[in-house]
Amino acid sequence: MTRASGGSGSGLSIVKKIIEPHEGVMTVHSELGQGTEMTITLPRKVTD
């Protein structure tokens, strides 16, 4: 996915507020001229 215009940057903080109560983790890696990779990891509950 690419984006041509800038944003306010509030999207990542909203995502963080959603995943933290679910014991999830968000990581962001960015390289100038290459782009940004965002990874969201959520625990999976095992049921019997």
From TrEMBL:
Superkingdom assignment: Bacteria
Keyword annotations from UniProtKB, A to Z: Kinase, Transferase, Two-component regulatory system
Domain Histidine kinase/HSP90-like ATPase as annotated: residue spans: 3-45
GO biological process: phosphorelay signal transduction system
This protein's record includes keyword Coiled coil: no
GO MF annotation list: protein histidine kinase activity
Recorded catalytic activity of this chain's protein: ATP + protein L-histidine = ADP + protein N-phospho-L-histidine
Keyword presence, Kinase: yes
Name the record gives this protein: histidine kinase
Organism: Neobacillus bataviensis
